């Protein structure tokens, strides 16, 4: 098990390999179909800082936050997967979700020294690992708004790193 605390450095990413079990702690962002395209737009318009967002060394968990807890959504949904290369360029080092991603996305992760990790859909376990949560952008999206979570001990498995993936 590799224990990782955010923000994640480039050196930590270089040390990860497919199949590594990781335990994440620190602050992570959440987003899915509604919030991630908006976050991409903020980055492209150079408006992250003015919205109080710093993605450098960050983690994006592909999920919504609801009263039932959090659980991964499919990362290969069009709106989500399209965000991965851009948000990696913006500084996100680890994308957390479920499912296989395309070879183009795997290559984009490699170009930006970022990785993709999968997490089993264990909503109750993950909810118990959340120490704080708040909406930081797009409150109009309800449970799909961009949230900032403080977590302790989120389990995950590296699924794509350095141009390789578990799924090929």
Write a structural description.
It is built from five helices and eight strands. By secondary structure, it is of the alpha/beta class. The mean pLDDT is 93. Strand 6 and strand 7 form a beta hairpin. The protein has one domain (2-165): Fe-S hydro-lyase, tartrate dehydratase beta-type, catalytic domain (fumarase). The protein has a five-stranded mixed β-barrel. Helix 2 (35-44) runs parallel beside helix 3. The protein is globular.
End-to-end Cα distance: 23 Å
CATH topology type: fumarase
Which descriptor suits the 3D outline? Answer: globular
CATH level 1 class label? Alpha Beta
Q: Tell me roughly what share of residues is in helical segments.
A: 25-40%
Question: Quick gist of this model?
Answer:
The protein is α/β, with parallel strands linked by helices and 168 residues long. It is built from five helices and eight strands.
